[in-house]
Structure to design on (148 residues):
């Protein structure tokens, strides 16, 4: 079998990353993996500490006030709820309070105020003052009290 010999001045080129470059690349990949694991661990820890649960409500606490804004797709504020130490303020087109069953108990908009319960009681010492006519099917006083 004939043997072919290589010329002695021919260089052999290695293909790939060798030496200190390879070590730096492995170190970089290891560092990225460690950062990824720390990030994942901190995310899990935050979720456990914040007690996120699909069955629980959102809890907001503040020493001054809490403001919640609702925005439309253009970014304009369409509704605002501001809870302060002495007042709750709502700015919206309509404000509604519902019962546990979802029935409207109290509804307010620019044109009317609707009380959706069977009975409306006015407990202030001055009673109720109406500037215009009032229509009701029944007016009654408390038991053993005069209608004033």
């Amino acid at each position: 079998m004939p043997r072919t010999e290589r010329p002695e001045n021919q260089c052999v080129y290695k293909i790939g990353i060798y030496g200190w470059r390879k070590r730096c690349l492995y170190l970089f990949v290891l560092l990225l993996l460690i950062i990824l694991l720390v990030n994942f661990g901190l995310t899990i820890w935050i979720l456990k500490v914040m007690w996120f649960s699909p069955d629980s409500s959102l809890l907001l606490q503040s020493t001054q006030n809490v403001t919640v804004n609702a925005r439309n797709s253009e970014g304009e504020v369409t509704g605002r709820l501001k809870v302060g130490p002495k007042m709750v303020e709502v700015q919206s087109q309509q404000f509604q309070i519902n019962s546990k069953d979802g029935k409207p108990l109290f509804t307010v908009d620019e044109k009317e105020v609707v009380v959706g319960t069977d009975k409306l009681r006015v407990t202030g010492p001055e009673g109720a003052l109406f500037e215009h006519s009032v229509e009701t099917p029944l007016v009654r006083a408390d038991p053993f009290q005069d209608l004033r």
About this structure: The longest strand covers residues 77-83.
